[in-house]
Amino acid sequence: MRNLVIAGNWKMNGSQTFAQEMREALDNAEFSERITTVVFPPFLAIHTMLGSDKFAVGAQNCYTEQSGAYTGEVSPELIADAGCQYVLVGHSERRTLLGETDQVVAKKVKLAVSAGLTPVLCVGETLDERESGNFKDVVEQQVVAGLKELSGDEVKQVVVAYEPVWAIGTGKTASADQAQEVHAHIRSVLNSAFDGAGDAISILYGGSVKSENAAELLGCADIDGGLIGGASLNSKEFITICRIAADSH
Ligand SMILES: O=C(CO)COP(=O)(O)O
């Protein structure tokens, strides 16, 4: 049975006050036991969110080394030591704006697993790649490259998030059919390239998910939850999406 995960990626938003309010709202919410809820605050708000019995906490990024003279960077070991359980790796905003390559992503995924974190490997095609028709190949390449440093057992500790770049922050969501098609493809790639791992790995959908479209997307057979950006900044909306996920899956 795969984990049903609803994760909120705050990106570079919020404040100490915002984090305190979100903490209170999530601590007081009733979450279904069928769902694993995770929040990814900016680094400086992580401490406010740690230690809840309602949700887990992750970092939005990590470095490619565990320690050393890398001013300003944060390693997977430091993230795990602080009490986080998850880390996002290879988000499209980092790939596009900060030049993160598949090689860098693979190294971060490996180090995250070594530190005891669950990496959430983010993949997804751009609008050009979608329109050119080879989006499944693009996503397949990102998945295989991102996991290539892992052993067979380690692969099963990863979560994958499919986030079509054209649907992120644009209000344009992939249709349920479009999302399900890519999720099924990722699962079959994971099964064939990593010895049946696809049946154990949760694959989340991300890209303009909100309460209005959550039921349709999260009801798909190969969609095991969501990675929510903008809508996760509103506690009511985020909690509603968690409830919809439990009801529709
Ligand atoms: O990038 C995302 C989550 O990581 C999705 O962002 P939006 O939900 O704001 O489109």
UniProtKB/TrEMBL annotation:
Pathway listed for it is: Carbohydrate biosynthesis; gluconeogenesis; Carbohydrate degradation; glycolysis; D-glyceraldehyde 3-phosphate from glycerone phosphate: step 1/1; Carbohydrate metabolism; erythritol degradation
Gene3D superfamilies assigned to the protein according to its UniProt record, in alphabetical order: Aldolase class I (3.20.20.70)
A biological process (GO) annotation for this entry? gluconeogenesis
Give the residues annotated as coiled coil: none
Residues reported to bind substrate: 9-11, 169, 208, 229-230
Keyword Cytoplasm on this protein? yes
UniProt keyword Isomerase present: yes
Q: Which residues form the active site?
A: 91 (electrophile), 163 (proton acceptor)
**Main EC class the enzyme belongs to:** isomerase
Instruction: Report the EC number(s), separated by commas if there are several.
Output: 5.3.1.1
Q: Name one GO molecular function term.
A: triose-phosphate isomerase activity
**Which Pfam families does its entry note?**
TIM
Keywords assigned: Cytoplasm, Gluconeogenesis, Glycolysis, Isomerase
Q: Name one GO cellular component term.
A: cytosol
Xref: PROSITE patterns: TIM_1, TIM_2
Q: How does it assemble?
A: Homodimer.
The function of this protein is: Involved in the gluconeogenesis. Catalyzes stereospecifically the conversion of dihydroxyacetone phosphate (DHAP) to D-glyceraldehyde-3-phosphate (G3P).
Q: Identify the NCBIfam families for this entry.
A: tim (TIGR00419)
Its recorded name reads Triosephosphate isomerase
Task: Tell me the name of the encoding gene.
Answer: tpiA
